[in-house]
Amino acid sequence: MSxxxxxxxxxxxxxxxxxxxxxxxxxxxxxxxxAQWIESQDWEAAANNEAMAMILLQNLVIQVDEQLxxxxxxxxxxxxxxxxxxxxxxxxxYHGNPMHIAVIIxxxxxxxRRILAAASMPVQGPLEKSLQNSVVSERQRNVEHKVSAIxxxxxxxxxxxxxxxxxxxxxxxxxxxxxSLEQNDKNSALIKQEMLALQAMLNTLDYKRxxxxxxxxxxxxxxxxxxxxxxxxxxxxxxxxxxxxxxxGPLHGGLDQLxxxxxxxxxxxxxxxxxxxxxxxxxxxxxxxxxxxxxQRPQLLEKVNFLLxxxxxxxxxxxxxxxxxxxxxxxxxLKTLIQFTVKLRLLIKLPELNYQIRVKxxxxxxxxxxxxxxxxxxxxxxxAMNMDESANGSLSVEFRHLQPKEMKxxxxxxxxxxxxxxxxxxxxxxxxxxxxxxGLTINLETSSLPVVMISNxxxxxxxxxxxxxxxxxxxxPQNLSFFNxxxxxxxxxxxxxxxxxxxxxxxxxxxxxxxxxxxxxxMGQQVSYNDYQLSWAKFCKEHLPGKSFTFWVWLExxxxxxxxxxxxxxIDGYIMGFVxxxxxxxxxxxxxxxxxxxxxxxxxxxxxxxxxxxxxENGDVTFHSVEPYNxxxxxxxxxxxxxxxxxxxxADNVPENPLKxxxxxxxxDKAFGKHYSCQPNEVSKASDGGGKGYVPSVFIPVxxxxxxxxxxxxxxxxxxxxxxxxxxxxxxxxxxxxxxxxS
Length: 743
Hints:
GO molecular function: DNA binding; DNA-binding transcription factor activity, RNA polymerase II-specific
CATH superfamily of the largest domain: STAT transcription factor, all-alpha domain
Keywords: Acetylation, Activator, ADP-ribosylation, Coiled coil, Cytoplasm, DNA-binding, Isopeptide bond, Methylation, Nucleus, Phosphoprotein, SH2 domain, Transcription, Transcription regulation, Ubl conjugation
Structural class: alpha+beta
Strand order of the largest sheet: 16-15-14-18-19
Pfam family, one: STAT_bind
Domain SH2: 570-672
Main location: cytoplasm
């Protein structure tokens, strides 16, 4: 079943998450129509290879054309229209930057895998639950409702100001008419009656002025209260969700809703400002003793300007945190002289601001006391915000060609780069701009979340550990001295984040049993870990007991192994992986002989092994484990083929494959058959007829097990081999196959 087919079977709450990341950048129609073709391409590799990305883009356009031809025959007008629009988008927007569409599609596929993994988990973790709190959802609805009510109130006040203006014009006309009469005419009874009417009209004007000012005051107060409370909380919640999403958590949404709220409030405040300007205009034409306008208007205008300043300052946000395109799952880790991208948005979307706001990027603007390393940004570091580059028309700017460069110190050398000093050193990318609108000049500034600067890719794992720990432990966006005294983390939350590393990076998260094993590895055999506090040193700096590496280095090596060598098997859920030697024996001891399971090595970095259960002639149960396979050996032979072809020699017996059933009772070929590179007998068939005169060769992993051996075995145990054993092998295998196996 294709990944897209699995997505379509999800519950509605998960489908809503999928809906959030499909937009005009990569329409869902194309994902649906070209599901199998899209999933069969290597978009992640293309995201880092422009030539490959261009080929995939061209092939994507060809696929769209084929679909367009098909639907044209079916006369599906709506789909024809949408496909033409998509083709125009692909040929126009991405032709000059094909890697961009590769990044987008790669991210979409990865998010689908993460959501599928989350849907398969029995319960949500504490962090994910907190992000989906019903109280938060209720507040979001309340904010949208209040913003809409404020907008309506401001529009109603517009009508009151217009009525006041009409009333004053009538008063002005009648008053000037009387003023133009001769002195004798002014003493007539009719004129006196008119003067009484004018007095009544002036009283009405005074009442209406006070009423309009009162309504304006109420609108300003409602905006102030909304900004101070619920809207501020909404923005902080969005920033926290962004932090969690950056370390592998659920995709954060809600920025478009925030943009709508910010924009409507800005429009309402500018509308109120115009109303106050109109009152000032009316004041210059008519004033009187006790006039409320000169008393109240300056205070109201000052409050409106203050709210506009705050609204604009809060609306300038980092929409997408700094990230190297070469490592999309490791944001906020930047390597010197390697390009990174970052995107900013102004949540106040006004057409007057399009291409009028120039944003400048700098690094470590105010960190003279934090680090002894100094950096500058190379590349285009000043760009204008616009509404044309974003699919949803938001006012944004994306920096795509920034490079951090480390400066030499006054002594002519670069800063100290100890193994942990560099990866625990936090830096900040800052952005500043100025908004000039309707007579207001507002300086805006914002910063990225803290980033870690590395000079060598070998520093990436520990740098990423720092990013995880920071964003798990604090919602402070700028605590650059965090690692001077890093706080402990709740183990239950850390385990949830570790599961996210697997779901976001290799497409399948960890279940409760796997997490329990990690918990035991981190804290020992304690019964409950819900409230256990784990230190930063224990996670990333102290070696595991009896080992020469830390917990995080061990886990990161497993992630790398899965990603590069056993990804399909992991996604299918056939690798138990995280299970101790003691636990595996408990699981296997009552199973049918030949039952095996796959687990990651606890003593070798980036190794995977398999253990099977066997039964001796006296009925005793015995277990056998092979020496762990690492990335070097798996580069030569796919792991599924190893499981298929693996042979053991018990004393002088005939070589046989002891692996029959994947735990608990799945026939081996049923579990791994679709991942075999070819069927065993197809190898020889391919060369029947003696192509080029050579006999076909096959790599066959072989172990020799002695009766009294209980230690792990490797193919090297086969050397040297007794003549009798060799004779048995010769009966069943060709000399070339034997040579390939033993070499």
